[in-house]
Design goal:
The protein is 16% helix and 41% strand. The chain has 158 residues and is α+β, with helices and mostly antiparallel strands. The N and C termini lie far apart (37 Å).
Length: 158
């Protein structure tokens, strides 16, 4: 799904996402022109993408966020998990002790070793633990449940 927003005949923002299957989807890109940021356009595009994803049967959306946009996604209802990926010379077993105060999940994606740091909330200082280490990429992965449980849904009176 691709959405665009125009302001004064120019593209001011885009959102691109896809369905992964099994009720999962990914927001691939969300971008808003610098000249119109802070006016709600990004939130509108993301909301429209979420609505379209729901219509396609998606129950959860995931995206990778740049550090500066994590707060935006949190305000839009997304929760973050810290993902560390490794390329030589970095090794997962050398970095894991830096996060010994958290539960860790080791995975691989397309042959790339990964370490998921299970944090109760986004803490931007955690990425400082690996800043400057060659071969370590840290990124916040944001998730949103598009179908909150019935207990979380607003109740109608009637």
């Amino acid at each position: 799904m691709m959405l665009t927003a125009k302001r004064e005949q120019e593209i001011a923002g885009v959102a691109l996402g896809h369905v992964d299957g099994d009720g999962l989807g990914t927001v691939d890109h969300l971008a808003v022109a610098a000249t119109v940021r802070g006016r709600g356009l990004g939130r509108e595009l993301l909301s429209a993408l979420e609505s379209g994803a729901r219509r396609l049967g998606v129950r959860q959306l995931t995206l990778g966020s740049i550090e500066g946009a994590v707060g935006f996604y949190q305000r839009c209802g997304y929760q973050g998990r810290l993902l560390l990926q490794f390329a030589p010379p970095a090794r997962r077993d050398e970095i894991a002790p830096l996060f010994a105060d958290f539960a860790l999940l080791e995975t691989q994606w397309q042959g790339i070793p990964q370490l998921w740091v299970q944090t109760p909330e986004v803490d931007s200082t955690l990425t400082n633990r690996v800043t400057g280490r060659d071969g370590v990429h840290a990124q916040w992965v944001m998730d949103k449940d598009l179908n909150p449980s019935a207990a979380d849904a607003p109740r109608s009176s009637g």
